[in-house]
Design a protein that fits this description.
With 210 residues, chain A is of the alpha/beta class. Chain A folds into 2 domains: 135 residues, Rossmann fold (3-Layer(aba) Sandwich), CATH 3.40.50.2300; 55 residues, Orthogonal Bundle (Arc Repressor Mutant, subunit A). Helix content of chain A is 53%, strand content 13%. A 6-stranded parallel beta sheet of chain A has the order 2-1-3-4-5-6, with helices on both faces. In chain A, α2 packs parallel to α3, α7 packs across α9 and α7 crosses α10. Chain A is globular and about 50 Å long. Chain B folds into 3 domains: 62 residues, no CATH class; 133 residues, Rossmann fold (3-Layer(aba) Sandwich); 57 residues, Winged helix-like DNA-binding domain superfamily/Winged helix DNA-binding domain (Arc Repressor Mutant, subunit A). Chain B starts with a helix and ends in a 6-residue tail after the last helix. A 6-stranded parallel beta sheet of chain B has the order 2-1-3-4-5-6, sandwiched between helices. By secondary structure, chain B is of the alpha/beta class. In chain B, α6 links the parallel β1 and β2. Classes of the chains: A alpha/beta (210), B alpha/beta (278). The interface between A and B is large, with 38 and 38 residues.
């Protein structure tokens, strides 16, 4: 049976291109979505064999979305499709349950191979990144623990995208008071005291692109 | 039976690409692909089939030189291979001839200069030479080639720079392939296609030009930097020895010039522009 694939990327042209390339290879593309929130919902509905996720997406970034998908659709394998090669990402990606790591600079054939690998239970790492992973393993560098909870990541990303506390609350279906207390806790944890500082932190941590 | 390439080009699966009206009756046009054609084969004696196929070829064959007029030659430049392959596939499906791909600006300039395509689709951020500088060079080395910029940025300064670089088409990556195709066709006709989502920026730029100030002034850049550093309006005023009211009006000018309406986006813009360090 052909593999069922879900694609998430905020650039329509790119999504359409990947979709066309995958369909040519005989995969079934069950859906395409433009943000990290929508992909969780659709993955939960469809439980596709593989989700191809962009790292930098509006509303919720690929890593945080991946963590939620592994909960919402446990049998779905996740591939991160990104332009970043730095190993902190790769380590973080593996930690949240991502099985494939493909660079956008690779060829479409590599993505196809990655999909086949992860679908049969293996792990696929782009040649450009596996070196970093091995090195990280050899030197046993542990990731610094993430100070923020997944919920706080979500709130932070929405703030950085210019949403007011009220809009954040409405989007997440929580009270304004709760949203505000998330915001205060994030600022306290990061020792940051203004929006500009939150934006710089989120970009530095690659939660969002500048 | 393998159809010649020009056949697939003219009668590909999609119907959205406006092609010249075919010179063959409908039945024959659909014949090589469709199930109707197969039923037809059952009805006619075998020896006639070859004749019909031959006739279809003769009818469909373009005049010498006509292929070039119909099939637009396109070069794609983007440093991400998967993106490039995807765009290439989408364009080829619509009947365009993607004559070359390039993975950076310098390579793009080289192949465009050699091949003189109708259109070069350029990514904005590429290694060695960015999309705008590449477009500027292409205007010199291959004047007949129109350039289309494919980017994720919609703020005014990018749009203004694109206009100055001689870019004829400005398409956002969040748009669909249909819009990229529209843009390519429009620029080939000698027109200009800028994404509807940047029309506000063009309007602002035009207004600004009349006042001679479509870019941020030196003072405004200073204010923007301080805002991105996390300073409040009051602190900005103190640090530049201006009144709070003046600082505040600088801030709102900056926002209106950039068409940005919240602090977070202002900070992101300043980071992109390298005004502040992370």
């Amino acid at each position: 049976m052909p593999l069922r694939i879900l694609i998430a990327d905020d650039h329509s042209i790119f999504r359409q291109g990947v979709k066309a390339l995958l369909e040519r290879e005989g995969f079934i593309v069950t859906g395409e979505v433009a943000d990290g929130h929508a992909v969780i919902q659709m993955a939960a509905q469809q439980s596709p064999d593989v989700v191809v996720l962009d790292l930098a997406m509006p509303v919720l970034n690929g890593l945080d979305a991946a963590r939620e998908i592994t909960r919402a659709a446990p049998r779905t394998r996740i591939i991160l499709l990104t332009m970043h090669t730095e190993d902190p990402y790769v380590a973080r990606a593996l930690k949240v349950g991502i099985r494939g790591y493909v660079l956008k600079s690779q060829a479409a054939e590599d993505l196809v191979q990655a999909i086949r690998e992860v679908a049969r239970g293996a792990i696929y790492l782009s040649p450009g990144v596996s070196e970093g992973v091995v090195e990280a393993y050899l030197t046993k560098r542990d990731l610094p623990p993430d100070p923020l909870t997944p919920r706080e990541h979500q709130v932070l990303q929405l703030i950085v995208e210019g949403k007011t506390t009220k809009e954040v609350a409405a989007f997440l279906g929580i009270s304004v008071k709760t949203a505000e207390s998330h915001r205060m806790r994030i600022m306290a944890k990061l020792d940051v005291h203004e929006t500009a500082g939150l934006v710089r932190y989120a970009i530095r941590e690659k939660l969002v692109l500048p | 039976m393998r159809l010649p390439d020009w056949f697939a080009t003219r009668f590909g699966r999609s119907s959205s690409f406006p092609r010249p009206a075919p010179k063959v009756p409908r039945g024959i046009r659909g014949f090589p692909h469709g199930s109707e054609g197969l039923r037809l084969i059952g009805l006619v004696p075998t020896f006639r089939v070859a004749l019909i196929i031959r006739a279809a070829y003769v009818f469909c064959r373009p005049e010498p030189g006509e292929i070039n007029a119909v099939t637009l030659r396109v070069v794609i430049a983007d440093d991400h291979a998967i993106v490039r392959q995807g765009v290439k596939h989408l364009l080829e499906r619509e009947g365009f001839d993607v004559v070359a791909e390039a993975s950076d600006g310098r390579e793009a300039l080289k192949v465009v200069t050699e091949m003189g395509p109708d259109v070069a689709v350029l990514d904005l951020s590429m290694p060695h030479l960015d999309g705008l500088d590449t477009a500027r060079e292409i205007a010199q080395t291959s004047p007949r080639t129109r350039t289309v910029l494919l980017t994720q940025h919609s703020e005014e300064p990018y749009v203004v720079r694109a206009l100055h670089a001689g870019i004829k088409g400005y398409v956002l990556k969040s748009q669909t392939a249909v819009e990229l195709i529209d843009a390519i066709q429009e620029v080939v006709r000698g027109g200009i296609y800028f994404s509807p989502r940047v029309s506000g920026a063009i309007f602002h730029a035009y207004q600004g030009k009349k006042e001679g100030a479509n870019q941020l002034s030196e003072r405004e850049r200073q204010v923007l930097k301080l805002v991105a550093d996390g300073k409040t309006t009051k602190e900005v005023a103190q640090s530049l020895s201006i009144s709070v009211k003046t600082a505040d009006s600088h801030r709102s000018h900056i926002m209106s010039k950039l068409n940005i309406h919240d602090t977070a986006s202002l900070v992101r813009y300043a980071i992109r522009e390298g005004l502040v360090q992370l």
